[in-house]
Amino acid sequence: MSAIAPARPSQGKARDLATRKHAPRANRRRVRAVALGALGILAALIWVFPVYWMVLSAFTPAAYLRATTPQFLPLHATTTNFSRVLEGGDFATALKMSTAITLLTVLAVLVFAFLGALAISRWKFRGRTSFVLAVLFIQMLPAEGLFIAQYKMLSSVHLLDSVIGVTVLYTAAVIPFTIWMLRGFVAGVPAELEEAAMVDGLSRTQAFLRITFPLLAPGLVASGVYAFLQAWNEFTVALVALPSQSSQTLPLWLRNFLSASANRGVDWGQVMAASTLIAIPVIIFFLFVQGRMTSGLVSGAVKG
Amino acid sequence: MKMLRFAALGVAATLALTACSSSDTPSDDATTAGGEKTAEAAEITLWLAGGDTNDELRQYLKDTFAAENPGSTLTIEEVAWPDLVTKLTTALPDEANTPDVVEIGNTQSPTFTTVGAFRDLTPIYDELGGDKLLQSFVDVGSVDGKNYALPYYFGSRYMFYRKDIWTAAGLEVPKTLSEFSESVAKLKTDTQSGFAMGGQDWRNGISWVFANGGELATVDGTTWTSTLSDPKTIEGLTQWQEVYRTASNLPSTERDVAYWDFLNDGTDGSAPAAATIMAPGWARWSIGDITTNDAGDEVRDGMADDTTFDIFALPGVDGGIAPVFAGGSNIAVSAKSQHPELAENLLRIIFSEEYQTKLGGAGLGPGNSDFVSSLGDDKFATTMIETAAASKLTPAAPGWAAIEGAFVYEELFQKIADGGDVAALATEYDAKLTPMLNGGAAG
Amino acid sequence: MSHDAALGVPAHSGPAGPAATGPAATGTAPTGEPPAPRRRRPPSAPYLLLVPAVVALLAGLAYPVGKQVVMSVQKYGLEQQFGQPPEFVGLDNFVRIFTDDALWAVVARSVVFCMVNALLTVVVGLALALLMRAVTTPVRLTLQVCLLLAWAMPMVAGVTVFKWLFDYRTGVVNWLLVKVGFDGMAGYSWLSQPMTFFFVATMIIVWMSVPFVALSLYAGLTSVPEEVLEAARIDGASGRQQLWHILLPMVRPVLSIVLLLQIIWDLRVFAQIRLLQDAGAPVSETNLLGNFIYELGMSRQDFGGAAAVSIFVLALTVLLSWPYVRSLMKEDA
């Protein structure tokens, strides 16, 4: 049973099997493996190309951008775009704001949604079905008509331009999906595991923390990634909830780049440099949770 | 443990939410006692749209305001143009958070003045410049003879062209609109637009309507009527259709194009994509040969080579200068401002000779016509002043912002550019536009 | 196949260490013992656990959603926003939007767009997940890193780059097409016709959504025990048979959840379309539901109408997902 842990199919065995039986088939397999590998690389290139284009443009001087013959290599590389974008210190302010809002949202969402998911997947109680339905339906309400009311609400409780105000809106927007996602994970860990541990002398809390919680880690990571991306990328709610320039988040700051110069022709080099800067924290976050994700994969517990 | 702490934090936050909501009483009217120029010290906020007001101008406003109003400070926020209407819609009615003074696009002004979003500035109108202020801008900011929004700055559009290409084709600067159309049609090749214009670009396109004496809409009392079917308007639209189809290679869906790219030689040495474009004056700084500036950046030299690049004003039907669309913005005080005296003091600074002259120095047409000479006397400044004098604005109808927001004119012009029947389209869109002009969207 | 019991549990994969060592490994099969400990707990526990989530939802949504409902039966425009008392107009807003052909065109467009995108995303995601399973480790890691990078790209930046790649004049796509011989594509304006506009929009949505789907499905696939496949291989099952009879059935729960999520999300696509429209698409012919609502509210200041459309969209989505919701309720009953 323990041999099933590796994430990858053990190709060695497969090849063994093949060579033993039919030698020509091994050849065909090699051809097939090369073709699949090429296909994999091609897919990788397709997915990474826009990212490459963004970074490349960020290092290109404005005069060379938007030439009719595209340049695929950084022949005129410059860091001017980055230094322009960073001067004035608005980036640092926006980075702080975005980081605070995003982290707070992720934490609030994970804790609240986890507790909620636990309730609906481990207990049967009156109102449970209604709650599950409500959670499902809330996700279906279009958000594009809510701005006026959201502004009025935050203004009346003096939470405009505050981290807390936006966090409250983001948390409410992200929780339904995360409850829903975690519900699957919690249901997937048989309660019997905990009971068995309790038979072995652990308290209920201990059993939960030692047995169930580790199995939920990948689910929490996946939900956290989702909440992180939502809070990090959102800009329409932020636009009305954070009216002051001093409290803008990174996407708003990026939008200012896009449109401050809209009348004068957008400075694409700077926009791409700004975009690259915004992507970096996400990549760092991904690298940080990547280990957890893969360990989750190895234990085989990730299920959407 | 960590988890508990964050849960507690969340609960605390929610409690704070409910606690605050009970203390939501409007602040007392602290400003009633204040007389002119002796308002109680406070912090006021100015919203500027886009980046046109440069840092030097902003600093001047802050410093002067602080000096003239001891104890008070001015905060300047920049709002991106595409977000301006959304942010004004939410913040202006909110007395606790409204900006005190706002810049607003000239064509957006009527929508907000007609719903009472701005403070009546009639009492200080004469003090701020009165008849000297650019009247077309004053008009879009007025309702029932009262002034709510005043001109902040203007820009206008003229033609930039490749002198070398025109000369090589044996063409001169045109004297009439039809001469212009013939010339640019001759200059069109498969790879070069004689005159580059996107099909949705109605802000440039309406110059042809205005030049023929046509109007987009007229008002009778307070009732607006779309007048696309007026023979003069149809004539203008038909001429524009002709120019687009014979001289431009651009897709009919293009609007707000960075036309200046088209006039430059490609960085790979390729020929320019257009011989002529129409753009606001500052487009100059994106046109020319590549040079290296003081900061070491590679930039365009601002049309330094005048044998290659030059400008002219769009000629009228019978010569002279055609009326073009005047870009620019207005400035107004929020009706809900808690510090209207201070806000008016800020307007006094903005309309002072010193600031108006500074606007001109920054290449923005000052709202007070007395100071237009501050723009300078080179060909760019004189052409800008000439075209501005002949310029026109879009109708000051309450529903105008809604029409722009729904891209109705973009659609109409695209259909005309695609070769549609102008008269039939005019009738169709008149029916669509008349209720919208009167703010019919909400009822 | 001794794994059946463990693997049959939806949304759970059995192979983790503790499951194997504990006596409960076979416990998923019904035993005589009812899950008694659960019953004995005070019934207040689940309610207490739900409190934070419910409070958070109420704090963030109760007022905006309530206001939405109220506005949908009011004449609410810019005048009302600036202080005039809103007038109760009953179902006028609904009548007005329902008699507007524009709404039905937008609804049809949105539903088709959503279905095409959701299916395409899941199919491509599944293909990539299977591919990751079949290739060598270096190739798989390369692919995974590239997918993560694409996933990390800020949405605004992603759309901007795509807009640029498909630009009629300076875009890489047209340049490439001309290079390989499609001379007619020089200067082709992708965003000007609704069909090609939605082609580009679909590319963007699929490009952005596939990483999540592919990585989730790959995770699901890796939890299929190698022994099962090996046993199948020894029994002479072909690659295709393994795919259809073992791999796919085992990731079915993940697949169906991912598909449902994509449907919900793709019906709500808003920002991508809005950013693309800035490039000059015919707006009224490319609006999806979110854009329609935003335009009605924010651009045309018909907040009452926008609220009515929002409520209609909610009802429509509930209706469309009703079969799924019913099965969910049955399963929960």
Automatic annotation (TrEMBL), chain A:
Membrane-topology descriptor: Multi-pass membrane protein
Keyword Repressor: no
Highest taxon above the source species: Bacteria
Region (Disordered) location: 1-24
PANTHER family in UniProt: INNER MEMBRANE ABC TRANSPORTER PERMEASE PROTEIN YCJP, MALTOSE TRANSPORT SYSTEM PERMEASE-RELATED
Family: Belongs to the binding-protein-dependent transport system permease family.
Record-level GO cellular component terms: plasma membrane
InterPro entries hit by this protein: BP-dep_ABC_trans_perm (IPR050901), MetI-like (IPR000515), MetI-like_sf (IPR035906)
Name of the molecule in the record: Sugar ABC transporter permease
Location in or out of the cell: Cell membrane
One record GO biological process: transmembrane transport
Gene3D superfamilies per the UniProt record, alphabetical: MetI-like
Record keyword Nucleotide-binding present: no
Organism: Cellulomonas persica
Automatic annotation (TrEMBL), chain C:
Span of domain ABC transmembrane type-1: 107-324
Record field: compositional bias (Low complexity): 10-31
Listed transmembrane segments: 47-66, 102-131, 143-166, 172-191, 198-219, 243-265, 303-325
Location of region: Disordered: 1-41
Pfam families associated with the record: BPD_transp_1
A GO CC term assigned to this protein in UniProt: plasma membrane
Membrane topology value: Multi-pass membrane protein
Entry-linked PROSITE patterns: ABC_TM1 (PS50928)
Keyword S-adenosyl-L-methionine: no
Subcellular localization: Cell membrane
GO biological process: transmembrane transport
Keyword annotations from UniProtKB, A to Z: Cell membrane, Membrane, Transmembrane, Transmembrane helix, Transport
InterPro entries reported in the protein's UniProt record: MetI-like (IPR000515), MetI-like_sf (IPR035906), UgpAE/MalFG_permease (IPR050809)
Family of this protein: Belongs to the binding-protein-dependent transport system permease family.
Protein's recorded name: Sugar ABC transporter permease
Organism: Cellulomonas persica
